[in-house]
From TrEMBL:
The EC number(s) this enzyme carries: 2.7.7.7
GO biological process, one term: error-prone translesion synthesis
Gene3D superfamilies referenced in this protein's UniProt entry, alphabetically: 3.30.70.270, 3.40.1170.60, 5' to 3' exonuclease, C-terminal subdomain (1.10.150.20), DNA polymerase, Y-family, little finger domain (3.30.1490.100)
Catalytic activity: DNA(n) + a 2'-deoxyribonucleoside 5'-triphosphate = DNA(n+1) + diphosphate
SUPFAM superfamilies linked to this entry: DNA/RNA polymerases, Lesion bypass DNA polymerase (Y-family), little finger domain
Keywords from the UniProt entry: DNA damage, DNA repair, Magnesium, Metal-binding, Nucleotidyltransferase, Nucleus, Transferase
Entry annotated with the keyword rRNA processing: no
Protein name (record): DNA polymerase eta
Localization per Swiss-Prot or TrEMBL: Nucleus
Residue ranges of domain UmuC in the record: 14-246
Family: Belongs to the DNA polymerase type-Y family.
GO annotation, cellular component aspect: nucleus; replication fork; site of double-strand break
Amino acid sequence: MPVARRETCDGRVIAHVDMDCFYVQVEQRKQPSLRGLPTAVVQYNSYKGGGLIAVSYEARKSGVKRSMRGDEAKEACPQIQLVQVPVARGKANLNTYRNAGSEGRCERASIDEVYLDLTDAAQTMLMETPPESVEHVQEEVLKSHVLGLQIEDEDDAKEEVRKWLCKSDASYQDKLLACGAFIVADLRMQVLKETEFTCSAGVAHNKMLAKLASAMNKPAQQTVVPQSSVEGLLEYFPIKKMKQLGGKLGTSLQSDLGVNTVGDLLQFSEDKLQQRYGINTGTWLWNIARGISGEEVEGRLLPKSHGSGKTFPGPQALKTIGSVQHWLNELCEELSERLDSDMDQNKRIAHTLTLHARAYKTGDSDSHKKFPSKSCPLRYGTTKIQEDALTLFLAGLRDFLSFYNFKTHGNENNNWGITALSVSASKIVPIPSGTHSIAKYFSERFPSGSSSNQSVDDVIDEVAPSSPSAGSDNCLGVIPSELQLEYPEEDTGVNHSKACLDHQDLLCNLSEKVDGLTEESSHVALPGNEDRMTRNEPYRDLLSKEPRLAFNASSLKAVEKKKAAGKKPHGNSSIIKFFNNYHNSQSSFEQKNVTNAQGVKIPLLHGSQSASGSNLTSNQVEMASEIHQLEEIDANNSGCSIDTMPQGSQAWSYNIDEIDPSIIDELPPEIQEELRTWLRPRKRPNVVKRGSSITQYFRPDKGR
DNA sequence: ACGGATGATACT
DNA sequence: TAGTATCAT
């Protein structure tokens, strides 16, 4: 059982940088008189003074906590300054912070956090300007906290830190960390200079430790975790404060295993943990107990999805489809704007629209989370998104009601309420420009009329990001015209125009629609082949026609704005250049990588999307069957998709597992990287096997 | 049935 | 895959 395992040959340098109470800083920058005052940002304030989502450190001293109510905060800290989150379309809008979060040159993991892999930068620095040779060390670096470093006299702290950072006989790994500290200190100063925001950072050999460290000394400080301090750091560290263990898993560790600190975990064998929590989670737990985490820094610069949502708690629950439609329209409008911005700024398009809702059924205490989420191909344009979202909602409602054996007697709805709505856009891929690197690489080398290469190039060069269709057909069928009217609001406290429709009539009408959907579903459930072929025709058209680039008005405006806006210059200090060099190469590689890895997929998705747009004109097409058909199309196409190659596709006649890693070095750099992403260790099937190959122990990371 | 809005990811 | 569940800030 106890198998010799490498200790921690993790020579990486990872930094976690975290903006200090970010939303507060954004507001303080906007309103500098707030600086230094106890301040918090609240969203909404009608109910108990709103909910706090960010709290300044001055206010924290008075005991104010995030997710307190505004009223409670006032109680704890009467002088507190409360700033409201901007409201647009009747809901909190976080664009201010989203935009501020894009400032500077940092990779963005979340709105206010980044992980950086500084290994290369630190190595370079160590070779070219090792800390021990630096004559004058920046003040900021000297303020670093180094875990495990004994500080006898607070006045000597900086001198102690300087000695550690510049120690000539330190281990190689410690030296790398020291370089990381220099780089991060400089980076933080750059961030401050360019954005006026302070941040805190942790520097360690992996993400988990860096994350822990960044939170240890806030605000505006940084903490280094030498390997020698890891054991002591984790021994008494509360298990629930570890990332990923703040929820049910952490609770289970406490109550089922009696594990309250990370150190407590050490007594459990990997097998034991695997048997209780599965092979992946078990190994992951075993590793984090030892400060081991192989999780790589994702180079991703941009979010993978966009969403807009709102809750309607308690008495505000939506009780009519009309009110649901109203709010869906608002949410979709915001989403649509953000998608347009993303397209303009990042040249990407989203391919899937998903609707989530929470609902309750009166009398059924357990019924409130079961509202099914639904998704469909995303068509650009506010109106289309609104239509599709409503249709998705209706489909969900139908399932919800039938699941609970709901009978629509009459027009009254005393049975259900919607307590949360959200729409989101995902599967965001770059708009193809130029040629896919792999396709290009192979077609240059093996020029052939091979249909696959040909079609890839054609589609990539010609596919249109969006198509303005005059009709309102969607993939789900046509939204009944009466649904497009404005409906009276129920009890959300919002006043919009009272339509002159009879409420009862309306409800009746809508009930019929929902019922209609139910009936259709059994009847269209199994689409035939013929149908699918018909739907593929527009796909062919798309390939042969001129590109139809369609940008709506707001897109154009945004493009103009972007052109007008000059780029902010940023000076380079001597140290930051190591980071810049690293970062620039990383990010350009990342761009290519995204395009490469995902660009191929576009023609397939576009095929099904455009196919669904034109031929189906029947009035109430059942959604489930549509989705089913789309799946079929995808399934058919994916057989020859490059996406499937890493799984060992016949088409390429190479098994990914048989590739000799050394040959990769011979390939062009961008292709090397692409292949490497495919070669990264895949997660093990979630089955516990005993006495299996020793090779499993060579993968101490990627637990989860 | 007020911890909201917004993401990411893993499981199935 | 689409849909669900969990986790985080």
